Amino acid sequence: MNSYNFTNFIGKKSIIIGELSSEKTSFLSQLLLNAIDLGYDKKITLIEMCPNKTDYNNIKLSSRVNEYVTDFSNINYLTPRTVYWPRIKGYNSKDVIKYSIINSKNLNTCLTEFKDKPTRILLINDLNFYLHMGILAYLLKIISKSSTFIGTCFRSKFPYNDYNTGISRRERRLIDKLTLKMDKVIQL
């Protein structure tokens, strides 16, 4: 999608979905920059849910917004210290579950921080990491605190094993449910 006009998203709940490495974060970042240019910066919260390391075995899996945007000084920027790739870092089902639970707790802290001090605009990059073990109803409650929401997630078969934990299936199911609650669904 080549239209990065933030005004097309004002007052709507939107989700950007695509395969791994499909430029979702680049698109979100361009919308963020456009929103800042339009003077919305003090009304924006960005929650970064993507891990710091965004590639594995020389394959780019995802991106963080800070790979495209360098100045977060005028927006509310929330990210936990650590987010893991459960299906990459885990060597068995117990590990995958452990890392997914850690992620959910760490990301839940960011969501709660937003709930306690909401802004009109909420952007979330890489919702997948919360949806592995997070509660969709709580996420929707947080999203409802903003008048404008734009989130990203990948919706594809992840190329690494979840060791029959069900997190991959759960992730896809919750993304499908989340899209039903959105005003705009953008497929990249």
Task: Summarize the entry for a quick read.
With 188 residues, the chain is an alpha/beta fold. The chain contains 6 helices and 8 strands; from the N terminus they run βαββββααβααβαβ. The chain starts with 12 loop residues before the first strand and ends with a strand.
Tell me what you see in this structure.
With 188 residues, the chain is of the alpha/beta class. The chain has helices spanning 24-37, 86-89, 93-116, 128-131, 136-144, 167-180, and strands spanning 13-18, 44-48, 55-56, 59-60, 76-78, 121-125, 148-154, 184-187.
Give the helices and strands, then pairings.
Elements: E1 13-18, H1 24-37, E2 44-48, E3 55-56, E4 59-60, E5 76-78, H2 86-89, H3 93-116, E6 121-125, H4 128-131, H5 136-144, E7 148-154, H6 167-180, E8 184-187
What attributes characterize this protein structure?
single chain, two-stranded antiparallel ribbon, 6 helices, six-stranded parallel beta sheet, 188 residues, 8 strands, alpha/beta, globular
Elements, N to C (H/E): EHEEEEHHEHHEHE
**SS content category:** alpha/beta
- Cα distance spanning the termini: 7 Å
Please tell me the overall pLDDT. 91
* Total E-strand runs: 8
pLDDT < 50 stretches: none
How many H/I helices? 6
Major sheet: 6 strands, parallel
Helix fraction bin: 25-40%
Instruction: Tell the overall outline.
Output: globular
Strand order of the largest sheet: 5-2-6-7-1-8
> What value does the Rg take, in angstroms?
15 Å
Kindly estimate the percentage of residues that lie in beta strands according to DSSP: 15-25%
